[in-house]
Write a structure and sequence with these properties.
There is one protein chain. The protein is about 40% helix and about 15% strand. By secondary structure, the chain is an alpha/beta fold. The chain has 2 domains: about 5-165 and about 350-365, Rossmann fold; about 175-345, Glycogen Phosphorylase B (Rossmann fold, 3-Layer(aba) Sandwich), CATH 3.40.50.2000. A 6-stranded parallel sheet has the order 8-7-6-9-10-11, sandwiched between helices. Helix 3 (about 55-70) packs parallel to helix 4, helix 4 (about 80-95) packs parallel to helix 5 and helix 7 (about 200-210) packs across helix 12. The two termini are about 30 Å apart.
Length: about 375
């Protein structure tokens, strides 16, 4: 079966490098800052952001590619939303080829800039009208899409939940991280980005006031408002800069405790929560504690760590207790279930099997979305 896949982000080289290189903080030089400014300017004018520049060359290439190989199925991976626009263009010309929109999250999200909200909603509706199948990462996202688009969109059974996952075939080498963490203090690790809808204040305050605790941060986009605060207490906060994916995973598997900062929207699940689940290390989920928060439910339901709301004293108390257990050599005796089998369903091999089954069904049965109605976006 031939497949055309629109990749959201190119894969990262996972080669293991020496710790001094892999863990070095990365800050932009003047050229990098100039490029960043130009990218911000482009983001104001191009939908959905600067990555939209890819649309026209990608449209020409994708049309040529489909004409040459005539695939059995098209899969477009969002984000960026540009991949969805490209797939819509292909679907209108090749109605007989099934299209799966690997949506993940809604196109219109809480963080969508106001100037693009109407366009994002219109694009999301066209995806629901034209795609033969849609995949999302959480039940709340599926329910939101069905509520928004109702009869105009796909039938509920055509919207499948495919979570993010973790590498479960061959664990990456971990020798590059050996000796990196202090054996005498509680070493926390956060890998990921900082956004307006992901608030670290409670965590940072608790770390700052709790002796014997250090928060390691592997992120390529630490905001300027946050950097001075972290630099003011280097004994409590260690910025690692950008890490290749395999290095980040290696650190996850050796840290004492991993940190997940909840999104404001409880339906959104950061992809790294599944990497954390596969690491075999305890997790602290900071922020949303409501039942509808998927990350909190995963950690609670599988006894992989602790869920702590935006309460500074509660967070500091938890860190103090864990630091004491670390000093006493009893951290790994905590009553959690860190067995791999508890989270095996989230391994990429298992998620891939579900995706393959969905593709095979669409190709074999010839199920298609209803004929296109109305105007395009």
């Amino acid at each position: 079966m031939d497949i055309v896949v629109g990749m959201a982000v190119p894969p990262v080289d996972g080669a293991v490098v020496k710790p001094v290189m892999a863990l070095r903080e990365s800050r932009l030089n003047w050229k990098g800052r100039l490029v960043e400014k130009l990218r911000k300017i482009a983001t104001q004018a191009i939908f959905p952001d600067a990555r939209g520049e890819w649309y026209f060359p990608a449209r020409r290439a994708s049309m040529s590619l489909l004409g040459d190989i005539r695939p059995d199925i098209i899969v477009s991976s969002h984000e960026p939303a540009t991949t969805l626009e490209l797939a819509i263009n292909l679907k209108r010309r090749y109605r007989d080829i099934p299209w799966i929109a690997d949506l993940g999250d809604p196109v219109l999200a809480d963080y969508t800039p106001r100037r693009w909200r109407r366009r994002a909603l219109r694009l999301e509706r066209r995806v629901m009208e034209l795609a033969d199948g849609v995949t999302v990462t959480a039940p709340g996202t599926r329910d939101l899409l069905l509520e928004r688009h109702g009869a105009a969109g796909l039938a509920p059974n055509r919207v499948q939940i495919l979570t993010q996952g973790f590498e479960d075939d061959a664990p990456p080498p971990i020798s590059s991280a050996a000796g990196f963490f202090d054996t005498l203090r509680l070493e926390l690790l956060y890998t990921g980005s900082f956004y307006q809808f992901r608030r670290p204040d409670v965590l940072l305050d608790a770390v700052a006031q709790t002796p014997g605790v250090r928060l390691n941060i592997a992120s390529s986009n630490i905001p300027e408002w946050l950097r001075p605060r972290l630099e003011a207490q280097p004994e409590r906060f260690r910025m690692l800069g950008f890490l290749p994916h395999r290095n980040a995973v290696a650190l996850q598997r050796q840290a004492d405790v991993l940190v997940n900062i909840a999104n404001d929207n409880p339906c959104q699940v950061p992809g790294k929560i599944y990497e954390y689940l596969g690491s075999g290390r305890p997790i602290i989920h900071v922020g949303n504690v409501v039942e509808s928060d998927v990350s909190a439910a995963l950690i609670r339901g599988r006894r992989r760590g602790w869920v702590c709301g935006n309460d500074r004293e509660a967070m500091a108390g938890l860190l103090e207790a864990l630091a004491e257990r670390k000093r006493a050599g009893r951290l790994d005796s905590i009553d959690l279930d860190l067995d791999d089998r508890v989270v095996a369903e989230f391994g990429w091999s298992q998620v891939a099997r579900h995706m393959a089954a969905m593709m095979e069904r669409l190709v074999a049965t010839g199920e298609r979305a209803p004929p296109e109605q109305g105007q395009g976006c």
